[in-house]
Fold this sequence. Notes:
Blueprint: H1 2-30, E1 40-41, E2 44-46, E3 56-58, E4 62-63, H2 67-97, H3 104-120, H4 125-184, H5 187-204, E5 207-210, E6 216-219, E7 225-228, E8 231-232, E9 234-239, E10 247-253, E11 256-259, H6 267-302, E12 305-306, H7 334-337, E13 346-347, H8 356-362, H9 377-417, H10 421-455
Antiparallel strand pairs: 1-4, 2-3, 5-6, 6-7, 7-8, 9-10, 10-11, 12-13
Helix pairs in contact: 1-10, 2-4, 2-5, 2-6, 2-9, 3-4, 3-8, 3-9, 4-5, 4-6, 5-6, 6-9
Amino acid sequence: MSSLMGLLDMGAGAIIAQNAGIATAANNAANVNTEGYSRQRVDLRANVGSPILGGVTFGDPQRIGSDLLAGRQRIIGGSVGYFDALSSSLLDLEGVVTAAEGDIPAGFGEFFGNLNNVATSPLDPQQREAVMASARRLSASFRRQADDLQRSRKDADERIRDTVLSASSLTAEIAKLNKAIQLQGDPVLLDQRETAALKLSELIGGKARIDSDGHMRFMLDNGSVVVDGTRASSLEATSDASLGGMGRIEVVDGTHRSNITQSVTSGKLGADIHFRDTLTVRIVAEVDQLAFDFATNVNAIHRGFAGLDGVGGRDLFVEPLGVVGAAALFELDPTIDGDPSLLATAALGQPVGDNNGMLALLGMQDLLLAGGGTRTFVDESVRYISGIGQDVRAAVVDQKFNEAQKFGLDTLRDSISGVSLEEELNRLSQFQNASQANMRFVQSIDQLLGRMIDLL
């Protein structure tokens, strides 16, 4: 009797174990499309017992994954986030600087072409007005270019501020999940933490590790800790006068604040900081230098010649006070702007039909007066635009390379942790068949017990 009772207990335990397997397989199948889900497995083990009594036991479902692979995914995620953001920003910038209404090289070509026409017909009022009109359009192109570049910087600053808010939300979420995992140990919470850490890496780069206590610790590229167990630091963007009112990025932990603006080198945040504080600043400086060189050189020649009134010493463009801001302030001198007859075409003391002034201005197009005396004005304008194109191509190549690496790691992760419906359905069938067999076993033992009781 006691042996039969033991067999009954063993069968009941086996049914419970097989049902746990069924539940786990069904849960895997239900989450086949859930982002970041790692398949789970029930580990069935034989009980140690006598030759008659043994049975099966099981533990909590175990999450199938690789911490080493997850760490590699986070690292490549930071690179993917960086080059995705950088290539997108550069492509937008390339469109801005090459737009027809802001094409400075074309503006130079039109200006020098009209100078040539006036050199042929110095007294033709229509040709003189055409020079003034092309000078206005070139001035507007410089100002528009300066405005567009400043707008690109402000857009990057807005993206930085949004990224900082999202990153702070994720650091708090990871710390919260660390605490929940410590209390519950639910595999789903591990998946959620891993998903949050991957998103955080794509935003700000950095590295994460799992400590011996099971907590995730997340650090930035410079070593700043933003998640330490159940504690999370926040990131803030604070307007900084030294950055022209743009935001500096700080890690805030209680009363301690650490400026990390120059040390974030990966993730979307690193790309936008690099774009805002390095790339666009460089291009703004190049456009300002070109505007300064062109205005000052044109004015220097224009002052040495006379308009139709025989008077010289006038500037064609407003003389820039310095290189910084020269493009944003580029415009025709208001004295000349409304009167094409004041365009200096003649040498001082020569008849108004003289064209030496126009020839001198026209000769500038072939002189190496830009780029520190190494290029013509047209060549320099083409060079900085081409430089943006080269930056775009380099960023796109890096983007594709890192996306290929990410795809390889994602594929590897799927082979380890991903859910296969076919496999789960096979497992489900196996567990169901085993459960039914155990049910028949229990029913047989139950019938034997019933007969023995009837005999007694």
